[in-house]
Amino acid sequence: MKIIIAGGGPVGLFLGICLSQKGIECTILEKRAAPVTDSRSLGIHPVSLGLFKQLGIVDDFLEAGVQIKKGIAHDGKKKMGEVDFSQLKPPFNFVLACPQFETERILEKQFTKLNPNGLIREAEVVAVTQNEKNIMVRFNKNGIEESITSNFVIGCDGKNSFVRQETGIFFGGKRYPDTYIMGDFEENTSFGKDAVVFLPKQGMVECFPLPNGMRRWVVKTNQFIEHVTQEKLSGLVLKRLGYDLSSINHSMLSSFGVQHFMAEYFVKNKIILVGDAAHVVSPIGGQGMNLGWLGAWKLAEILKVCLENPSREKELLHAYESKHKKVVKKAAKRAEWNMKMGRKHKIPFAKKALIHVLLHTPLSSIAARKFTMHGLG
Ligand SMILES: Cc1cc2nc3c(=O)[nH]c(=O)nc-3n(C[C@H](O)[C@H](O)[C@H](O)COP(=O)(O)OP(=O)(O)OC[C@H]3O[C@@H](n4cnc5c(N)ncnc54)[C@H](O)[C@@H]3O)c2cc1C
């Protein structure tokens, strides 16, 4: 069996490691010349750390990230309560905040260790054609078109997936009205390694610790802001919370909207979609990349079984698709709930009461499990 993975982002690289460890030959075609250089996706949940342990890369991640053991809810004036992740089953009873450039660096290092010539960079997939037996992938490298034939093509090429579009798979879903701006600033709070969700009446603000004395600030906005400035972000944080970020060094500023989309098929004959190519959930709660890794892990296991039992291939891949779709739907609901809690409510008192019950009763252990993707793996 030979597999082509289109896209060497966090999910494509992870899938490449899983397949290589199982002795399945694979090549990753990635259009970027190098891994990302900014912090982007941060949150790595316990379930993924468990998978990293099995792949022998968890220590690299633990060294690169910060362990968040507590999530604090704050109304802008005082603490409302907290969710303590350390009550979860050890050893991974925390969420790891690890910048995406570190994640991609670790995954690429491990993949190329297992498969030294397996990653082809500056290779943009431009055509995918399948016949009865195999698939031909054409890609552009340095202006020259080349082609490879394989048994499967796995699209890990992100939410605007070329592979998905080329295969004609419908990507259905919705955009939410919620919009946010974010930035990474030097630490100026006393929250240490805790994550904080502020819920003042003017709108939600979240902040998470990052390695190297930095903190990520995420601020809900009333409309999409294309060009984010330090002045804009710090102005909103100052008005809502009284924290002054206006003269604090920062390394990144950006804005994002939120959406939930899912491909009609994750598997179409010999073409498979994984990660954001197959499903996009709201990033509030930080699940998208982790969800991609969960799918990639299960898919690699299934492909190994298919290799040994080719006659069961259709049945096994079909079962993989329907099982993983259920997981994605569950995760999307959780993400939507997280996002709704950050919206302005018509009855603010009811929201406060709900949060109080969640954080001050035995329900808090359920909240800790839900926020850390327990029950999805
Ligand atoms: C603001 C924000 C914060 C987030 N935070 C988190 C978080 O904390 N935790 C979490 O789990 N998720 C988070 N997410 C979601 C996460 O970013 C995505 O789920 C994740 O990046 C998906 O990984 P992927 O590898 O599937 O796709 P991508 O990261 O999009 O990677 C796709 C790769 O394919 C390559 N590619 C594309 N087209 C081609 C082509 N034709 N040929 C070759 N290569 C191609 C691209 O260059 C890229 O490297 C966040 C998202 C946002 C917007």
Give a quick rundown of the structure.
By secondary structure, this protein is an alpha+beta fold. The protein is built from 10 helices and 20 strands. An 8-stranded mixed β-sheet has the order 6-5-14-15-16-13-17-20, sandwiched between helices.
Account of the protein in words:
- This protein is of the alpha+beta class.
- It folds into 2 domains: 2-42 and 100-170 and 264-341, FAD/NAD(P)-binding domain; 177-258 and 345-371, Alpha-Beta Plaits, CATH 3.30.70.
- It is built from 10 helices and 20 strands.
- It has helices spanning 10-21, 46-55, 58-64, 100-114, 162-167, 230-241, 288-308, 313-341, 348-360, 363-371, and strands at residues 2-6, 25-30, 43-44, 66-68, 70-74, 79-84, 95-97, 119-121, 123-130, 135-141, 144-150, 152-155, 171-186, 195-198, 205-210, 214-221, 250-263, 267-268, 271-273, 279-280.
- The strands form 4 sheets. Strands 6-5-14-15-16-13-17-20 form an 8-stranded mixed beta sheet, sandwiched between helices. Strands 8-2-1-12-19-18 form a 6-stranded mixed beta sheet.
- Helix 1 (10-21) runs parallel beside helix 4 (100-114), helix 1 packs parallel to helix 7 and helix 7 packs antiparallel against helix 8.
- The mean pLDDT is 94.
- The chain binds flavin-adenine dinucleotide.
- Residues 6-12, 29-32, 40-43, 124-125, 156-158, 162, 256, 275-276, 283, 286-290, 292 line the site of flavin-adenine dinucleotide.
